[in-house]
Design goal:
This is Transporter. The structure is a single chain. The protein is an all-alpha fold and about 300 residues long. The protein has a single domain, classed as Up-down Bundle (Na+/H+ antiporter like fold), CATH 1.20.1530.20. It has 12 helices and no strands. Helix 3 runs parallel beside helix 12. The longest helix has about 45 residues. The chain is globular and about 70 Å long.
Length: about 300
């Protein structure tokens, strides 16, 4: 509500920036994670379930709430954050299953049409229904807005319950991973997150110089992965054909998600200071260019 329509319209027109953020999030991150996970798998350092789970996590779209909150904290472009949160999750319904099938070679075992239908019913339909109520049913909007804290708690506890049931089923059927492999996966997820954030920050600086707010937003938009869509996707793809692996496929995502929150919260104030300093310097340079220096011959007489 705090973002003006013209700001959102301007965000939609940044085709080059939008394409880069989505390509980095879906393509660069997943390609890098796939290579590292296959290397660890080749050395026998990770189980197949954990290695594949890392790939599944890397194929997911950007978060919704978290990327907008951290972008705002870092003085980034909030309109761009809103666009990418919505657009990334919309295309992720179709793109994420296809990427997972491409990397893991499960297209013969997983019916992508069935998975997409499940995701549409579990993710897109509730989203569209909520937006319809918010836009066209003011009493419903006012009711939810007045109890936002309650509904947020309900959402969090429902997500916890889903994760709990997933791991209950995993432990009941047996988990094909050692404690050492789990700790290695945690270390790899943390290291990869730092690496992709550093690469995103550097590449955004080269490709979009002089746009600090876009760079701040891109830092999070290029690297965040959503748990809200990730768990329904994993369940839709694997609950029928490999229920024992659902927990292992979910675990890397449950590691990445809090790590991106902790790291983002830690660096957001510093990024905000950098954005403010860059914009202040840009304003100063602009004012200096507007001043027309007096020529020597035009100097006032003494």
């Amino acid at each position: 509500m705090g973002i003006r329509t013209e700001e959102l319209g301007k965000a939609l027109q940044r085709l080059r920036f939008n394409a880069y953020v989505q390509a980095y999030n879906f393509g660069v991150v997943s390609g890098l994670v796939y290579g590292i996970s296959r290397l660890m798998l080749g050395f026998g350092a990770l189980s197949v379930g954990l290695a594949d789970g890392m790939v599944v996590c890397s194929c997911l779209p950007v978060t919704v709430s978290m990327v907008m909150v951290l972008t705002k904290s870092a003085n980034g472009d909030e309109a761009a954050a809103v666009f990418h949160a919505a657009f990334g999750n919309m295309i992720g319904i179709f793109l994420s299953p296809a990427l997972i099938a491409m990397y893991l070679g499960v297209s013969g075992d997983v019916d992508l049409a069935r998975v997409t239908t499940k995701l549409v019913l579990r993710v897109l339909v509730p989203l569209m229904a909520g937006q319809f109520l918010r836009c066209f049913v003011p009493p419903a909007r006012n009711y939810v807005d007045g109890r936002s804290a309650f509904f947020k708690k309900v959402q969090e506890w429902l997500l916890v319950f889903i994760v709990y049931t997933v791991f209950c089923e995993t432990f009941e059927t047996g988990m094909d991973a050692t404690v050492g492999q789990i700790f290695l996966m945690i270390a790899l997820q943390g290291g990869i997150l730092v690496l992709v954030m550093a690469l995103a920050w550097s590449s955004l600086g080269v490709l979009f110089p002089g746009q600090p707010r876009l760079r701040a937003m891109g830092l999070f938009g290029c690297t965040h992965k959503t748990v809200a869509m990730g768990i329904p996707l994993i369940n839709s793809m694997y609950s029928d054909i490999a229920p024992a692996l659902v927990g292992l496929y979910t675990l890397p995502l449950l590691i990445w998600h809090p790590m991106q929150l902790l790291l983002g919260t830690a660096i957001a104030p510093r990024v905000a200071e950098w954005v403010d300093a860059r914009e202040a310097a840009s304003t100063t340079r602009g004012q200096e260019r507007e001043l027309v220096p007096l020529e020597a011959d035009d100097s006032p007489p003494i």
